[in-house]
Automatic annotation (TrEMBL):
Domain of life: Bacteria
A Pfam family of this chain: ThiS
Organism: Bythopirellula polymerisocia
Descriptive protein name: ThiS family protein
Gene3D superfamilies listed in its UniProt record: 3.10.20.30
Xref: SUPFAM superfamilies: MoaD/ThiS
Length: 89
């Protein structure tokens, strides 16, 4: 099963240890991992189920390609990392 990890900053919204999910896409993995965590879900995803601009998602160390449909494929050993994007000026 794939594992979804949230950074410590995102965990401050709701304690969410790494979650193992049975999913074949990053979208399905996020939906499973965020089930019952509505405060965190609303911070990570918009009302249309798309990632918010300030959120970055990586699969096995590589940034996802499809931020709109979240269709990037997962394997049983995939490690998904969800984090807040850094910005500055």
């Amino acid at each position: 099963m794939a594992t979804v990890h949230f950074t410590s900053h995102l965990q401050s919204f709701v304690n969410s240890a790494p979650v193992e999910v049975a999913a074949t896409t990053v979208g399905a993995a996020l939906n499973s991992a965020l089930d019952g965590k509505e405060q965190l879900r609303s911070y990570v995803m918009d009302e249309h189920g798309r990632l918010r601009r300030h959120i970055m998602v990586f699969i096995d160390g590589k940034i996802i390609d499809d931020r709109v449909n979240l269709s990037d494929s997962l394997t049983d050993t995939s490690e998904v990392y969800v984090m807040q994007a850094l910005s500055g000026g």
